[in-house]
């Protein structure tokens, strides 16, 4: 023990034995929703998961996997694989998204980080461009964060700044855009008074310019690209407030759908196209509507629309928007630093650990599980195996993915007797669900279920324990719905496919011949979520969880 009194040694659980092999299975994108033809998990043949669900009710539970349960700002925020695995592994809830940005801005750390250092290289000769939603709605971005970023960037050497804003009217009242633009203009004039060449360069409504999501409509991103990068739009103004007022009146559209415009000088030239040597920051903290513009700004190989001119820039996101794609590769605010994860505790208490998935989710069952940390805690006690994912095809082409191979590796690890914990991620429900192909997603769910069976059969053979759970929803609802839950139709009368994650709860199932007969799920945990799983797993290994972990989901009842 150090002088602080901290110890890695976990106390023994008073009632649960040590020495049982525990399989931890994470079904990616596997939530619980009402049973209709758009619920691929329901439609698919999934006898193994069905038997867990229909088995003992005290061994099956639904937990929250989105919003505040995984550290996101609000319960309108769907979960994702990164924050989900952070919570599963850490056993506590850490701030993600907006809160992280607030902390980094308040401490000034954001201006010392790798991302800012990377874009700062351009400040001497180039322009800093800031692209994002101008609003205090707090869902995708916040005006006060932009203001702190503007002041901090100029204090740290940015001599020329151009803002490309998107008007909101969705998370805030329609019409409020005018006030936000006036506020921004006032801030920029104060910077100009200090000798910084700062002004607005372009604008447009969020639903019509730049902020599309899930590759729904690349034309939205192209309209933004043309205005922001090329400095081209059919509407040109010398003043941004006038631009918004005029376009609202003339086109009779609301803030969300304002057409793109560029700000021009007296000779009708755009004041802020993005050119070689410039720096670009997308300042939204929420990821879903930034991924597409990030791809356009970052990828050399890009075929979604003709970019015409691709400037050599230094680009950073406010955060990393996609942990699987590692997109963008530079970002101003790093994910939370998570110490004392369950994985590290267990290894330090002698639990030999095997973790496996295929490429697309390998990082989740290792890096994100271990608190955004690479590598082993103790390579003498751990083995991580990555199975290469199919590449060059979309996942609906081979929806079984590598589920069988992952299950075989897990089975072999369980039967080898060399490991106390065998942890896997089965990506099918999520990766195939994202393609929007319902038939393929049904095949994917069946494949994942078969993989679970293989792992549970191995646990049966060694007298072990299993925990089957998920990181967020996806495959259980594949259609967009109206407020009353009815499927939405497009102009042609076809259903609108939902390719995103969902807000649905996910299952946690426990069992196996090694499970103490008195173990059952508690009913007194308020709003159980993914973060409660870590303490549960520690208990099943025969340990009490650290005092500051979210409470365990299980109790032991005397028979």
Task: Specify the helix fraction band.
Answer: 25-40%
Output mean pLDDT: 95
What is the number of helices?
16
CATH class of the largest domain: Alpha Beta
* Approximate shape: elongated
* Gyration radius from CA atoms, angstroms: 25 Å
Q: Give the N-terminus to C-terminus distance in angstroms.
A: 38 Å
CATH fold-level topology of the largest domain: Alkaline Phosphatase, subunit A
At CATH's second level, what is the architecture of the largest domain?
3-Layer(aba) Sandwich
The total beta strand count reads 16
The fourth-level CATH homologous superfamily of the largest domain is Alkaline Phosphatase, subunit A
Strand order of the largest sheet: 2-14-13-1-12-10-11
Structural class: alpha/beta
Number of structural units classed as domains: 2
Largest sheet: 7 strands, mixed
**Which segments are poorly predicted (pLDDT under 50) over 5 or more consecutive residues?**
none
Strand content: 15-25%
Would you give an account of this structure?
The chain is of the alpha/beta class and 559 residues long. The chain folds into 2 domains: 22-95 and 338-553, 3-Layer(aba) Sandwich (Alkaline Phosphatase, subunit A); 98-317, BPG-independent phosphoglycerate mutase, domain B (2,3-Bisphosphoglycerate-independent phosphoglycerate mutase, substrate-binding domain, 3-Layer(aba) Sandwich). 30% of the residues lie in helices and 15% in strands. The protein has 16 helices and 16 strands. It has helices at 40-43, 47-54, 81-90, 98-107, 114-120, 143-155, 177-193, 218-228, 240-251, 291-298, 342-348, 359-368, 403-416, 428-433, 438-462, 533-540; strands spanning 22-27, 60-63, 128-134, 160-167, 197-205, 235-237, 261-263, 279-282, 314-317, 353-358, 382-387, 421-426, 465-470, 506-511, 519-521, 554-556. The chain has a 7-stranded mixed β-sheet with strand order 2-14-13-1-12-10-11, with helices on both faces. Strands 6-7-5-4-3-8-9 form a 7-stranded mixed β-sheet, with helices on both faces. The protein has a two-stranded antiparallel ribbon with strand order 15-16. Helix 10 (291-298) links the parallel strand 8 and strand 9. Helix 3 runs parallel beside helix 12 (359-368), helix 6 (143-155) packs parallel to helix 7 and helix 7 (177-193) runs antiparallel to helix 9. The longest helix has 25 residues, at 438-462. The protein is elongated. The model has no long low-confidence stretch (mean pLDDT 95).
């Amino acid at each position: 023990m150090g002088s602080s009194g901290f110890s890695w040694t976990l106390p023994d659980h008073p009632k649960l034995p040590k020495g049982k092999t525990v399989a931890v299975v994470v079904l990616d994108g596997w939530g619980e929703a009402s049973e209709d033809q758009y619920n691929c998990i329901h439609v698919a043949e999934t006898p193994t998961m069905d038997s867990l669900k229909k088995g003992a009710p005290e061994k099956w539970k639904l937990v929250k996997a989105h919003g505040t349960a995984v550290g996101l700002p609000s319960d309108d925020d769907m979960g994702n694989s990164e924050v989900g695995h952070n919570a599963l592994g850490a056993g506590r809830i850490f701030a993600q998204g907006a809160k992280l940005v607030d902390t980094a801005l308040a401490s000034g750390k954001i201006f010392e980080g790798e991302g800012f250092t990377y874009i700062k290289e351009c400040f001497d000769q180039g322009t800093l461009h800031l692209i994002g939603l101008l609003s205090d709605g707090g869902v995708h971005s916040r005006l006060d964060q932009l203001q702190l970023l503007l002041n901090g960037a100029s204090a740290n050497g940015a001599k020329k700044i151009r803002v490309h804003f998107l008007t909101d009217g969705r998370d805030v009242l329609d019409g409020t855009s005018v006030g936000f633009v006036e506020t921004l203009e006032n801030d920029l004039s104060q910077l100009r008074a200090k000798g910084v060449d700062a002004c607005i360069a372009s604008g447009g409504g969020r639903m019509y310019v730049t902020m599309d999501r899930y590759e729904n409509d690349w034309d939205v991103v192209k309209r933004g690209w043309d205005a922001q990068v090329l400095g081209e739009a059919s509407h040109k103004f010398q003043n941004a407030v006038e631009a918004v007022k005029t376009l609202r009146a003339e086109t009779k559209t609301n803030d969300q759908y304002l057409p793109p415009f560029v700000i021009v000088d007296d000779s009708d030239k755009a004041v802020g196209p993005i050119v070689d040597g410039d720096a670009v920051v997308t300042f939204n903290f929420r990821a879903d509507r930034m991924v597409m513009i990030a791809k356009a700004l970052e990828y050399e190989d890009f075929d979604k629309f003709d970019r015409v001119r691709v400037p050599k820039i230094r680009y950073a996101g406010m955060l990393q928007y996609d942990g699987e794609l590692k997109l963008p590769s530079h970002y101003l605010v790093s994910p939370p630093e998570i110490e004392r994860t369950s994985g590290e505790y267990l290894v330090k208490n002698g639990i030999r650990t095997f973790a496996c998935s295929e490429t697309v989710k390998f990082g989740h069952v290792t890096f994100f599980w271990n608190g955004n940390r690479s590598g082993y805690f103790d390579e003498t006690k751990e083995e991580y195996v990555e199975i290469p994912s199919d590449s060059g095809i979309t996942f609906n082409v081979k929806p079984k993915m590598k589920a069988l191979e992952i299950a075989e590796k897990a089975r072999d690890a369980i039967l080898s007797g060399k490991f106390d914990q065998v942890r896997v991620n089965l990506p099918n429900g999520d990766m195939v669900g994202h393609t929007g192909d319902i038939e393929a997603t049904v095949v994917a769910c069946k494949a994942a279920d078969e993989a679970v069976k293989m792992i549970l059969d191995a646990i049966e053979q060694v007298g072990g324990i299993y925990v089957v759970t998920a990181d967020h929803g996806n495959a259980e609802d594949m259609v967009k719905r109206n407020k009353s839950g009815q499927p939405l139709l497009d102009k042609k009368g076809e259903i609108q496919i939902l390719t995103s994650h969902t807000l649905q709860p996910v299952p946690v199932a426990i069992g196996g011949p090694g499970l103490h007969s008195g173990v059952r799920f508690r009913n007194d945990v308020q709003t159980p979520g993914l973060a409660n799983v870590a303490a549960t797993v520690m208990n099943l290994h025969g340990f009490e969880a650290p005092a500051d972990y979210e409470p365990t989901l299980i109790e032991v009842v005397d028979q």
